[in-house]
Amino acid sequence: MTIKIAILGLGTVGQGVYETLLSHGQYISEKLGTDTELVGVLVNDSSKQRNLPNNIPITTNYHDILSKDVDVIIEATVGDHPAFEYLSQAIEKGIHVITANKAMFARYGKKLKEKATKNQVHIGYEATTASGTPILRTLKQLLQVNQIEKMEAILNGTSNYILTEMTMNHTSFEDALEQAQEKGYAEANPSNDVDGHDAFYKSMILSELVYGQQPNWEYVYREGIREISNDQIQHAAQRGQKIKHIATVEMRNGEVAASIQPMQINDEHPLYSVDGVNNGITVHTDILGTFTLTGPGAGKLPTASAVIEDLVYVFHKEVKLEKQFI
Question: Is position 10 annotated in a ligand binding site?
């Protein structure tokens, strides 16, 4: 039996998922023990020229996707709505879902996970937090025994790239941002990255996963990197420090607290050497102690990698096409 896949959205992430399914299709099939087939793609504008074979149906109507015998829907759109409604409807139909939509999942992830449990399907969301760095799956394994006391993380590859260029090459913020846009790390409107919104959403997803709750969003301090000057960068360097954009999530006096802000750290901090477009997370636990994960944090292929890993996880030998909840 063939695993039938539909993709919602064919922007940077959706295109990366399609290309990975194409380039690694045989390997994915070998891992799954069955073939995969892309049976539909949802887009906003069907008249736009796209590099897709003619046999792959493209539609602007979500009901066309749901009417197919789909086993899993990969959601790679932007914004809360109608993404939340799309995934809700898919779950209610017994379809597994995988999402890379961090803003939507930060707001509605708990509801979607509860709905997935009720309908005995799997929801994959590794791609919402750190692109190609397997933070969520690692934390899920740790939570079997360990208590996580605090997390410190660089969660936005674009901001980290800009700060690295300013530090290493004395590049201005404006020039470093332009470079990030040229390399495909930053959007034409970079506010989501450089003003800290992206890192904020990812922090809330981590908080929900680890502590089962999020802090009140109004009380989370959020500061981006727009106001950081080259003088500040160089003054920090003279003290042997770097300025990094760090999200902190921790349990404080029985309540979850979080902040997203530029911080000056020295070379004893585990995130000091996380440079370029990479992400990193330092996790403080009661048994294992402290450890750090690092990996690519921006770009279509690292994010697509996380999506495909979720796909394989959903349909691995223990699950196959029985749609059992994991």
Answer: yes
